Every structure is written in C-alpha cells, then in structure tokens.
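hey m, so remember when u said the tokens were messed up on ur end? i reran from scratch. heres the input so u can diff it against urs
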Amino acid sequence: MAISWQFIVIYLLGGALAGLSAGLLGIGGGLIIVPLLATVLGYAGFPSNEIMHVAVATSISVILFTSFSSTVAHVRHSRVAWGVFWCFTPGLIIGASIGAKIADLLPDSAMRIIFGTFVFLIASSMFKGNKLKNTKHRPLPKNYILTSVAVFIGMFCNILGMGGGSLIVPYLSRYQLEIRRAIATSAVCGFPTALTGVIALALVGLDEQANSIPGTIGYIYWIAFACMVLPSVAFAQLGARLAHRLPSEKLRRIFAWFLIIVGIDMLCKAVFDLFLNVVSQ
C-alpha cells in the first residue's frame, strides 16, 4: 500500500474535521471519515472490492475515541438525557453486532449506494424537523420502544461506519428534545456503539482478504486510524464547545446541508463505479 506524506496529511485533516463534526453535530465523524477514506484508499492501492469495508471499519475505530472525547465535553455542560442513553445502549450493542456481519457480506458498490441514500433520508428528516418547532410537545416513547429503535440504529451504524448521531439526533428531535440535548445524548451513545463495532468488524474481517493487506487488522486500517485519532479527539472538544454557543436552528441547518453534500458525493461515486463495471464487461 502506498504511504506518503500526502496521505498522512489527508488523514490528519480528515481526523480534525471528523472530531469537529462529532462535537458540533453529534454525528461521530463517520460522515466525513467514510467518504474521505472511500476516495483516498483507492489511490493508496487498496483492492476496489474492499475499500468501503475498510473505510467503514476504520471510521468506527476513530469514532470510538472521538465519541469518548466529545462525551466528556458534553457531560460537562450537563445536557445529556441519561434516561435515553440507558434505554438505547443495550439495543445499540445488539444492533452493532448484527450490522458488522451484514457489512461483511455486502459488496462495495451496495455499501456506497446505501450510504448515499441513507444520508439523503436523514437530511430530509432534519429539514422537516424545522417545521416542528411550533407544534405541540411530543413526549419520548416508552423505554422498550427506545431500546428497539436502538437495535436498528446500531445495525446501520456498523453498515455505514457512523456513530449513530445521524439517526439519533433527528429521532430525538421528532419528540422535541432540545437540539443541544439531542446532540449531547447522541455523542454519548456513540461510545458503546463504536466499541462494539470495532470488536465485531475486526473479527469478521480476520478471515477475509482485508487481513492480507499491509497495515490492517481485519478490516481496520491502522495507519489511517493512527493519523486520525489524535486530531479527532482534540477537535471534538472544540466542536462540543461551539455546539453550546451556536443557535439551535443554525445547528439543524448545518447538519442537514452537510448530509446532502455527503450523499451527493457518495452516490455519484457509486454510479460511476457501476458504469465502469458495465463498460468493462
């Protein structure tokens, strides 16, 4: 695999942006790391059929540390809805374990399409959330419903390489949980999800082709991880501080527009790859 200072710089900058988004938007950084690695790893010489799998697993490994860093910052501001966290955690762990196995079975192009489509749906949900601010307050669902929803969230986190914020934040916003509390709660939930994901994705990749790629253990590319983790942790603290200063409406708009940009990028790459496969046959 090609390792040069250019790749190192890209990984460092990607880690910084991932940490900033984790603290600011509660998304764990996966929506930056996965598209970034999905692009860079191709130039680094990774086999095309393993790129998304490695990108997802490496993203989850970085999220494990960024979520912990942003969790510390959000807890200091006392905005975490701990009741929601304790209901979500068992479901997140179960779902993340299932998602790791599903990700192992999916082809690379399918993962790109799922990723791109998914973020468009989440962006749409966030834009609709803007219209709910004057509606009647909706209480959170019962505990068993929250746990069941968390299974679904944890599963998609490991398929898409995210910490859960892209689902948890809009879901909690539907019930009019204040956006800063939703972001803080999402950041805390990212830790058990990522911990389960790191273990599961490392294990499912041990017998796969990814294990023969230099610098990897299972599907986790440790070189990119080592470059990303420190700046991501540092910038997660900065993002969390900004999250408690910016207006709620502005945070929601940033979140939604960012997802749209990422979705367009990922879907375009997926369509281009499918076109190349058809032409080459």
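this time it looks ok to me. The chain has one domain: 5-280. if urs says something different then somethings off w ur setup not the seq
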